[in-house]
Protein: Paraquat-inducible membrane protein A
Organism: Thioclava sediminum
Amino acid sequence: MNGHPNTMTVDPADLIACPQCDALYRATHLPDGKRATCVRCGTVLISPRERSFLHVIAFSFTGMILMIGAIFFPFLEISTRGLSHESSIFGVAMAFSDGWIAPLAFFVLSMIVALPIFRFAALIYTLWPLANGKPAWKHAATMFRLAEESQPWAMAEIFIIGTAVALVKLGGLAKVSLGPAFWAFCVLIIVIALKNSFVSKWTIWDAIERK
């Protein structure tokens, strides 16, 4: 990868910009396992990995299964003074489904559940034909772009962090038992991190355009 090219003589389609510092480079294809980083800030720009598309698809399928299961399985149970209450993510969201706060139920389910599932589905739609050596399906570029743009709003990870903080505060007031949905979310965080480690945005865009 060549840094800071003369943009007057280079096709803009051959350029890649660092997402952190906006430095421009002429993009080149790299062998699997090699990485191209920004010389200014060190951000990884291109990082192709062997069979990365298949890995991303596998992790996306796993994430969808975990997310769907986590919606309906018990998330936690709170017990105090002989009384106990068990709740799920879906049950908590539905608790806000009446009256003027009904939009909050839609917001909770969208940010925690719907958007992560959509991102998994969009990645599968984008990469499935590419992983099988076939041309990208129609609207693959749009689907991948939406998946990337919705990433900041998919808050499954933030939900787990917020839950952990709440559990610390509840620990002194009641007995809290964690359900299978909580552990499913914890595994989901690991799956998302592994998926992200195999995603090379430039490699995916290049594959979509070449196919």
